[in-house]
Structures are given as structure tokens and as C-alpha cells.
Amino acid sequence: MQLEKMKPQEFDGIYAMMEQAFPTDEYRPYDAQKRLLDNPAYQIYTARQPGQDAAAAFLAVWDFTEYVFLEHFAVREALRSLGLGSRILQEFLRLSARQACLEAELPETELARRRIAFYERNGFYTSPYPYVQPPMAEGKKEVPLVIMTSKEAVSRERFEEIKARLYREVYRVRGFDEIWM
Fold first, then answer.
1. pTM of the complete model
2. Mapping DSSP to helix (H, G, I), strand (E, B) and coil, where does residue 88 land?
């Protein structure tokens, strides 16, 4: 499977996969998510099985100079547990060659523990520092999560840098630097 940039006409299908794969508080409303496509730091990559038109998986990524943030990664439900997720993730990490970070659910359920174990098998480290994803939109809730990073575990200082950038540029938390730093 090869990763390629999402074509604009594929957005509706990718958004439907996002709705199916993530809790409602972990993605933006349709129009807000689509507007991100105008941001040069944001990109959605798709992966297809040979001969298939619909994407088998997607990665929604924020490309920052020193690292990439994988905001959303999902494999179509019917194709899970076939090893596709690991192959796609490893291909993405190889192509990026930079450290990647992502958010994962707290290990409070069996499914969340399995997701964390998936990322750990693929070279990610779980940060021990508390983290909360700010609300994605009006009416959505904040979500306690963990930050995971590829290549190596991060120091508290590096974690705070990642958190500050995500809050400022991804979640657009106003006044974050004045409140939290």
C-alpha cells in the first residue's frame, strides 16, 4: 500500500471514516475539518488496496519543522487486524524521517490499551505527563489523553513544547502562553 495525498473529492469519504473511528469529541465538525485543508501545515494522506477506489486508511497530519503530529489515523473497520495499520504507519514514519507525535486515549479500557500497545509495537513511547486535548469546537468536551512520540521518549521540557504548539496551532487555544507558561 502506498501513501498519497488525499484528493479533494475524497474528503467526504475520509470524514465518514473519521466519524466511524473516533469519538465525537475527538474530531471537528465537517465544515471546520474541511477548512483545515487550506492550512499548508495540515495534510491528509490516504492508502488504498490495489484495485480499490475507496481509501483503506488515512492519516491526518500536521507538518511542523521539527516533528509531525498525527492528529487522526484510521483503517477502515473491515480491514482492521490485518497488519495494514502497522505497514501504513511504518511507511509514513519512513517517509517523514522526523519524530512523530500523536494523542492516544488513556489506558482505561481494553480497546485503549490495545491501541497504545499497537503504537508501542510501532516504536512509540508513552509520555508520563498529564495532557488534555482541548475542545475541538463549541459544544465539544475536552478529552484526557496521553502524548506518544516516535524515536524516543521526551523530556518534560520537550513535552511542554509539543503541548504548547498543539494548543496554539492545532487547537487554537487563545491566550495559552499567558495562562499555562
1. 0.91
2. helix
